[in-house]
Amino acid sequence: MLYIYFCLLSIPVVIEAVNISYHHGFVSSPKSRALLCQEHINKNCGDVQYEPQSVEGPKGFPLYGPMDGKIASAGVRRFRQLDEYDTENNSSRWNIQHIKFISTNETHVQQTFTWEFTARHSTTVFKFYLSNQNYTTADLLTRSVLNTNPFCEKDLMGSKPNRTISIPCFIRIDDLIPFTKTAGVILSTWDIADTTNAFYQVIDFIATIA
Q1: pTM value?
Q2: Residue 194 is assigned to a structural domain of this protein
Q3: Burial 7-16 (b: 16+ CB within 10 A, else e)
Q4: Any idea what the CATH number is for the domain that residue 112 is in?
């Protein structure tokens, strides 16, 4: 760990230098909540409208990572609007993406997810999590309303992705069926290999199975 020493009024002060990743990214397809803020489709988003690529917090989800209720913002206070949910005064807080999932067999469907990067960075793994039947749009996003076993993983084992990476994923139809009638969420995490952080992106969706 790096420490910086300097003197202020003859008093020695120690500041711990924090490891910050300047290599950011977001889910561009299907469009994430943060990206739709930048496109002004989602409204009243605060600072994330200027940098949807910067939703960064501790890695290790679900065992570690942001606390419940702050998952969508990665626990970053200036992105706290991402944690908001439907209320009586705001019954449609987030734009819902209509996503077509393609049947591959009797039990699974396929969808491709694309991460886009503002700079390349050594990567451990991408993971994707689906909401469970406890989720409603009037809920805070917590582990209790997510299937905490990812339905899809892409392991890069420390290599650097290109400017974009498209990841084909397969989802159990039984897990997806509830979200053909009501909105669900997909949480994607991008774990960085050489820092303690990950990037968090939430997709609000209703599914069509083709």
Answers
A1: 0.88
A2: yes
A3: eeeeeeeeee
A4: 2.70.50.50
